[in-house]
Write a sequence for this structure.
């Protein structure tokens, strides 16, 4: 019986998603909604906050670059796109 309890506790700990990743996903969802509504500045801010919480998610970088491109902010757009492309090719 002790073996089952130990295995269950270990399995539960491995399946739990860290809080920062959950928060980053929520921010990214809000950013996507804002982008779909045309609020690209607000969306870029949400994606930037999501990146600060979980910087391994490549989609956040590309979505933020898309928002910068739509805003015409090409000085911020180009380096961010390069970063997103590098992340995609590292897989």
């Amino acid at each position: 019986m002790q073996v089952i309890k130990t295995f269950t506790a270990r399995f539960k700990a491995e399946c739990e998603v860290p809080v920062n990743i959950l928060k980053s996903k929520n921010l990214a969802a809000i950013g996507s909604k804002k982008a779909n509504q045309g609020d690209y500045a607000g969306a870029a801010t949400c994606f930037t906050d999501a990146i600060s919480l979980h910087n391994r998610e490549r989609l956040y970088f590309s979505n933020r670059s898309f928002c910068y491109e739509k805003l015409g902010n090409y000085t911020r757009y180009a380096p961010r796109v390069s970063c997103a492309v590098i992340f995609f090719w590292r897989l």
